[in-house]
């Protein structure tokens, strides 16, 4: 089970992006955030950033953190959302494959050890981040509904989360 923990266990597990202490992370030497979009920042059906998300991005920016949105979704969805935040983005990222993570790090002009990955899926965001030596934070999905492939991922993810909870690796409980 050591490999399972290495690849699938996030460094942190929180209810939402708003529970992440980005000030503490910035003060710890992190310089960039790679964040997923759908069900991480907003529900998959929310077209534009909410006021709270806009404020969260501004706070991160004020702390000197650069953010890139990396999503498996299509260009129209990701660019439409990202333009209101004035941040770089990568669409059709094919997470957990490492290419998009490496490209985002290169564009932000930072090192892997200075990079945080935030996402709602263990099999894409956490696996991709861990596999590339990045600090991973998993959030509870904003919405309970998902596309077909994501629903399949969630079945595996629930088993892994239950295993990590039984072992005491994750102590936080979902609502």
Automatic annotation (TrEMBL):
GO MF term list: phosphatidylglycerophosphatase activity
Cellular component GO terms held in the UniProt record: cytoplasm
CDD domains hit by this protein: HAD_BsYqeG-like (cd16416)
Pfam families tied to this protein: Hydrolase_3, Hydrolase_like
InterPro entries associated with the record: HAD-like_sf, HAD-SF_hydro_IIIA, HAD_sf, PGPP1/Gep4
The protein's name: YqeG family HAD IIIA-type phosphatase
Organism from which the protein derives: Staphylococcus hominis
Gene3D superfamilies xrefs: HAD superfamily/HAD-like
Domain of life (superkingdom): Bacteria
């Amino acid at each position: 089970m050591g490999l399972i923990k290495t690849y699938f266990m996030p460094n942190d597990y929180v209810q939402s992006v708003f529970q992440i202490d980005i000030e503490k992370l910035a003060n710890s030497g992190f310089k960039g955030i790679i964040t997923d979009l759908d069900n991480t920042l907003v529900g998959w059906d929310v077209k534009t950033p909410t006021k709270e998300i806009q404020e969260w991005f501004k706070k991160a920016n004020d702390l000197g953190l650069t953010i890139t949105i990396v999503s498996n979704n299509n260009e129209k969805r990701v660019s439409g959302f990202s333009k209101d935040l004035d941040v770089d983005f990568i669409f059709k990222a094919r997470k957990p494959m490492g290419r998009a993570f490496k490209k985002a790090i290169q564009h932000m002009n930072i090192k892997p050890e200075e990079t945080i990955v935030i996402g709602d899926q263990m099999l894409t965001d956490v696996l991709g981040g861990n596999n590339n030596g990045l600090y991973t934070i998993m959030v509870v999905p904003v919405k309970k509904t998902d596309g077909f492939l994501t629903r399949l991922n969630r079945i595996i993810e629930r088993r892994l989360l239950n295993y990590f909870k039984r072992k005491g690796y994750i102590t936080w409980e979902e609502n």
